[in-house]
Each structure stands twice: as C-alpha cells, then as structure tokens.
Write a structure and sequence with these properties.
Largest sheet: 2 strands, antiparallel
Number of strands: 2
CATH architecture of the largest domain: Up-down Bundle
Distance between the termini: 14 Å
Radius of gyration: 24 Å
Helix content: over 70%
CATH topology of the largest domain: Four Helix Bundle (Hemerythrin (Met), subunit A)
Number of domains: 2
Strand order of the largest sheet: 1-2
Structural class: mainly alpha
CATH class of the largest domain: Mainly Alpha
Number of helices: 9
C-alpha cells in the first residue's frame, strides 16, 4: 500500500507540472494580461489530489484543510495562481509522506500487517489450533493498545492498566474497555495453556472483535 501511495504522489506531481506548462496568456480590460490554464483540467487534478490526501493524510488533516482553502477563489486572482497554491500544499504533503511524518499512512500500513496476522489466526482456528489463534490475535490487540497509548501520551504498562487509562482518557468507552478485558482474558488463558477456560467460539468472537477494534482505531 505504501508503494501504491508513493507511485500516486509521483504521478500527480508529474501531472501538475505538465498542467503548469500549458499556461497561456489572456487579456482582460479590467485586469490586463493574466496567465490562464484550462479550468477543467485543473479541477480534475484537484479531485484526484484530494482523494490521495484524504487516504494518506486523513479527511480532517491540516493538509486537507489547507488544500481546500487553497482551492477557494481569491479576489483579483486567476486559476494559474490557484494552481500555484494547491501545488504548494500538495508538495508539502508529498514531502511529509516521503519523510515518514504522516501518521495515517503508518496506520494504514500497520492495519495491512495486522490484517494478515488476523487472517493467520483465523486459519489456525479453522485447523483446530485455537490457543495459537488466540495468542496471535492477542498480540495484535496489545500492540494496537500500546500504539494508542503512544498517540495519546499515555504511559506504557500492562495491558489492563493501559486499557483502563485509555478509557479514562475518553479514547474509547467503558463498554469497549470491558470487551478488551474479556479478549485479554482469552489471550492469557491461551498463553498459559488453560484451553479449558475458553472455546473455539470464544476465539472466533475475539478475532472478530479485534478486527472491529482495528477498524475503529487505525484510520
């Protein structure tokens, strides 16, 4: 996925440079001569760029907000100047992406990795290895909890404490906290060889709950 975004950034940079090169000069009795580019081509590029920024930076990111602001008409301005504004925001986002400073991209890549691990857990469960499946799902859960603590400036500790601290901070509600406690119980029982304390159905529910938790918190 990271390679796909990298390629798309490069494609859109090439496209905006090509669009910039199509500049022509027009004349107005009010403003005199001014640079101009095809408005439909600019609009098309902006739509594609916003789609990428939404996926990579997030719909509520500073990058997206700056891009939307740059698109807005400015008095006594022209669309070539608009191109310059959106280009500046786009290149800033590209630089942050290439520097590894975009949290959303990290989460997307991490979600992809975790998804593969949960698929492995499901396959193990289908083959009858419920304890191994529970342990793998538990590792994904605890890693996600630890990352949420980092993002919210909460100290790392044992899972039950981090879970309580995240709920107390309002990162998620008490119901989610109880679900995580239950999932952690299955993981701990599996890790200690206490297979009589859970069923394969419990592990299946755990994997499903971890998947939902990832979907909610890795955005």
């Amino acid at each position: 996925m990271a390679k796909l975004f990298e390629r798309r950034f490069a494609e859109l940079e090439t496209q905006i440079l090509a669009l910039e090169a199509t500049k022509t000069m027009r004349h107005s009795e009010l403003s005199g001569s001014y640079p101009y580019i095809d408005s439909n081509s600019l609009l098309g590029w902006e739509v594609k760029a916003k789609s990428l920024l939404g996926n990579v930076c997030g719909e509520k990111s500073h990058h997206m907000a700056a891009f939307i602001e740059a698109e807005k008409p400015v008095s006594f301005s022209n669309n070539f100047e608009e191109l310059g504004r959106v280009k500046a925001v786009f290149l800033a986002a590209k630089e942050d992406y290439e520097g590894g400073y975009l949290n959303t991209v990290r989460n997307l890549v991490q979600a992809e990795v975790f998804g593969s691990e949960l698929e492995q857990a499901s396959e193990l469960l289908s083959a009858g290895y419920s304890s191994a499946a529970a342990v793998i799902a538990g590792v994904v859960l605890e890693t996600t909890i630890r990352n949420l603590c980092t993002e919210n400036e909460i100290g790392h500790a044992k899972l039950d404490k981090m879970n309580a601290d995240l709920a107390r901070a309002g990162v998620y509600n008490l119901l989610q906290q109880k679900r995580i406690t239950a999932m952690a119980g299955i993981r701990n029982a599996a890790a200690h060889g206490d297979a009589d304390k859970f069923t394969s159905g419990d592990v299946k529910g755990m994997i499903d709950d971890v998947e939902r938790f990832l979907a909610m918190n890795l955005q």
